[in-house]
Amino acid sequence: MEVHPFLWLYWVIQWVLDRLLSPTPPPPKATLGRPRIAVVGAGLTGVSSASHCVGHGFDVTIFEAGDEKSLGGIWSKVNNTSGLQIHSIMYRFHPSVKWAAGYPDKQQIVSQITQLWKKYGLQERTKFNTLVKSTKQDHYGRWIINDNPSFGSFDGILAAVGTCGDPKMPHMPNQEAFGGEIFHSSRLDGKTAAGKNVLIIGGGASAVEALEFVVHTDAASTSVLARSDKWIIPRNAFVDGLLALNVFGQETIFSWIPEALLKRFFYRDLEDLAPTSEGLFTETPMVNSDIFHQIRDHKAQWLRGDIVRFTEQGLLFRHRAKGVPKGGPGREIEVKGDMVIMATGYQRPSLSFLPDEVFQEPYQPPRWYLQVFPPSHMR
Predict the structure, then answer these.
(1) What DSSP element (H or E) covers 293?
(2) What is the pLDDT of residues 295-342, one digit of tens each?
(3) For the chain, which has fewer Cβ within 10 Å, the N-terminal or C-terminal residue?
(4) Closest-CA residue to 290 (of 281, 299, 282)
(5) Distances from the Cα of 274 to the Cαs of 49, 129, 278, 298, 300, in angstroms?
(6) Alpha carbons 210 and 61: distance in angstroms, whole number
(7) 68/52 Cα distance (integer angstroms)
């Protein structure tokens, strides 16, 4: 099999990064003498954090609410048709990760997480089916999990519960009257949209997941019903890399430049779909190269507005003009379909197991996710 020179170079770079930066895994059954760390969550962040800890001699225990099938966090829950939207070179969650493609699918991502888990001997350090409900310090300042001394005491806690929990499936007016199928965007394995008119409710990252399914299963038509306009950027490593150069992570006086370039070269005749009131770096954009192709081929449409209610044949939708805010006036139309995909995202995992004092200003969510160790608990 002939390998593209750029892909071969990518493999070499990953091999070098692994050799230079990956901490050495501890020997099997090793007794680690450095402080004990409790990691809450066995998703990508939890496994990556735990591997770094044990690689540097820390004694780690991972607590995961689900069973072993939950290893990988949100990636264990999404559809098999789902994959990474940004280039994998920007998704290196550990130096030892070795991607075989620029845009790996779910199976490869979960496989890399699992390999990392096994490489650092985390199987024997993971307690599955153990929901962490509380953490408190004893009189020695060490942390006790769930008021259960049998777990031992810990010198530190890493909360790696992520930002996506169980699927969010809201009930909408007159939903029972709909004669077709209704699924959440993460529950599409084994389903097909072949020859069907699909209605996607939502315009965020979950809509990307739904669009991947629709494209893979050859739907007759697709209507994306979004409450607001979203910036859509192409699935292109060069473009994504340029946008990532904005180290501030927010709008700047120069943000109009990439916005204008996207409208000129990516949106082109579909510039009406670009947001007018929100900048490119205000929220996380959608990363998808298929939606505009589908719209131009008259296989898809993007409608801005609000859901009024379900009908027997689809949805009654209040279609708003560009610039009209959410909930504003619009023209009511019926959008017909055979299948509705609820791209309504996920519940936010709770951090209620942590003591209240760790959320003092300015370390409240979402900033808390960036400052994992509140200063009052640094020693």
Answers:
(1) helix 290-296
(2) 898 888 999 999 999 999 999 999 999 888 888 999 999 999 999 999
(3) N
(4) 299
(5) 38, 44, 9, 19, 16
(6) 36
(7) 21
Q: Which residue has the tokens 């990988």?
A: 72
Q: What amino acid occupies position 12? A: V
Our CA angle for 163, 248, 89, nearest 5°, is 65
Q: What count of residues does the chain have?
A: 379
Do residues 275 and 229 touch, judged by C-beta distance below 8 A? yes
pLDDT digits (tens, 9 = 90+) for 208-267: 888 888 888 889 999 999 998 888 888 888 888 888 887 777 888 888 999 999 999 999
- DSSP secondary structure code for residue 26 in this structure: P
Cβ atoms of residues 170 and 158 within 8 Å: no
Look-up of token digits 């090793």 = 30
What are the backbone dihedrals phi and psi of residue 219, each rounded to the nearest 5 degrees, phi first?
Answer: -70, 155
Encoded tokens for 346: 């996920």
Query: What gap in Å lies between CA 14 and CA 8, rounded to an integer?
Result: 10
